[in-house]
Give the backbone structure.
Amino acid sequence: MAKQVMFLMLTCLISISAIEADYNVLKYGAKPDGATDATEAFLRAWKAACSSAKAAMIYVPKGRYMLKAVEFRGPCKSPVTVRIDGTLVAPTDYRALGNSGYWILFRQVNKLTVVGGKLDAKGAGYWACKNSGGSCPPGARSITFNWANDIVLSGLMSINSQATHIVINSCNNAVVRNVKVIAPDQSPNTDGIHVQSSTGVTITGSTLQSGDDCISIGPGTTNLYMSHIKCGPGHGISIGSLGRDATEDGVQNVTLTNAIFTGSDNGVRIKSWARPTTSFVRNVLFQNIVMKNVKNPIIIDQNYCPNNQGCPRQSSGVKISQVTYRYIQGTSATQNAVMFDCSTSTPCQGIRLQDINLTYMNKAATSSCKNIGGTSSGLVMPQSCL
Ligand SMILES: *[C@@H]1O[C@H](CO)[C@@H](O)[C@H](O)[C@H]1NC(C)=O
Ligand SMILES: *[C@@H]1O[C@H](CO)[C@@H](O)[C@H](O)[C@H]1NC(C)=O
């Protein structure tokens, strides 16, 4: 009897997904030739799907689709899935994405799932502009979710963004899973994933190779869970920069578990401006991490003040507390594998090191501590300075 009920329920579920309304972008006029502007066709498909009375699926078949800066707006009537088998490409001229700051933007869309696909923002022209020191537009983030709740981004590959590849901003309950981000080591500000002002974000099973942070965690991030992350090249996983503004939301309850950093500038970093602020970082756990030839495997830097502008001789007001590092092993590319440079005015508190084994050129590495309180337990190498 129970089996029959289960079977009925399953059939029911399967038929619900089978009758999901289907919106194929080809039917709305998109040309998969990589050159014809497909922006309007995608927007027509979006409009239809977003007003569907039942769950809707937008389908992007194999092929290359050229998209300009585009905003997919909600709220939608029903849950929407965007299934991408093709590649979305930006216009060749980087100025085409203009000053919008965004390439593909989902705004105020709830219950959205984006599955598969490849994004090629063709960022090289933009990086060349930035590196030449000329005046360049601010640069477009490749895919952004703004004010969106209950979203899933799964199986996406993003290459060569102008600025950050993936942004989760002001969202509740977001899952980023099995994504791959690739940009060259020297491409400026091409962060992998940026999370800000969001609650309940999970990032799992992802490989991030970029010219800036693999994952950057901005003000107002709470309940962030990251697992099975491969990072490098890049600047590591960074909470911050925080404390740029005098009034700013803090970051709390962040977990990173099971990660491998390879050849990155940093491993796990907390970074704040040397300026007064209301901001804070608390309840953070970094655990089960392997470092392979990482320059600063464990680092807190509260003296961030690029070009000595707006903060020289000031000290950071960001209050850092209850941060645990455990089961972290591997190799440092510099002698000082653990660096805690906390604020003179707001010292770090409740910092815990447990079972750390980091070496430098097969020898003991060192650690340094400033303005910090905490404990260590288990085997801790380099010797703890807490
Ligand atoms: C911390 O975040 C996790 C998700 O990563 C969540 O399950 C948990 O309830 C949060 N804890 C608190 C105290 O909010
Ligand atoms: C620390 O790690 C090195 C290799 O990175 C290893 O040879 C050594 O045995 C480890 N030490 C302990 C006590 O686990």
User: Anything to note?
Assistant: The longest strand covers residues 280-294. Residues 2-18 form the longest helix (17 residues).
